[in-house]
Amino acid sequence: MSEGAAKPRVLVIDDSRMVRASITRHIRESYEFREEADGDAGWQTLLLDPSVDVVISDLSMPRLDGYGLLERIRSSKIARIREIPVIMISGDEDEQARERARRLGASDFVTKGVGTTELLTRLESAIKAARLRRELDDSREAFTRAKP
User: Fold this and answer.
1) Could you tell me which CATH class the domain 9-146 is placed in?
2) Where are the domains of the chain?
3) pTM score, two decimals?
4) Closest CA to 43 of 34, 129, 128
5) pLDDT tens track, the chain, 148 positions
6) Would you call 47 helix, strand, or coil by DSSP?
7) What is the SS3 string spanning 71-130?
8) What is the rounded CA–CA span in Å between residue 65 and residue 90?
9) Best exposed site among 24, 29, 70, 84 by fewest CB in 10 Å?
């Protein structure tokens, strides 16, 4: 990242303050972050804060769980929300949970307690993929406009 470039912003959603603190401790040098304690508050943040680049969300939370949040995100009428990378986290290595999250549109799935290097690598990959998708969409749009 170049000097002066804004750090990508990560929205961390988990009902456990300790889990949020652990994740933010791992990412604070490379990313800006916001924290929310449930899916509903996370959804409101996505609606109001267009600077969020990626979401890390727990599966099991009160009010709106990670699956419900993921469904809202992927069905949003707002393109920047609908296309945002979402990394789901869980305390379990449950293959059914991973498959359900994948079917609902999760970009990635990690187990709580994952190491700093792995978490940063996955965040970087998710952000890079989203940036490339936006650039491709912009190129397609420019190409379409340039056609006679």
Assistant:
1) alpha beta
2) 9-146
3) 0.87
4) 34
5) 445 568 999 999 999 999 999 999 999 999 999 999 999 999 999 999 999 999 999 999 988 999 999 999 999 999 999 999 999 998 877 889 889 999 999 999 998 888 888 889 999 999 998 888 888 877 878 878 877 6
6) helix
7) HHHHCCCCHHHHCCCEEEEECCCCHHHHHHHHHHCCCEEEECCCCHHHHHHHHHHHHHHH
8) 12
9) 29
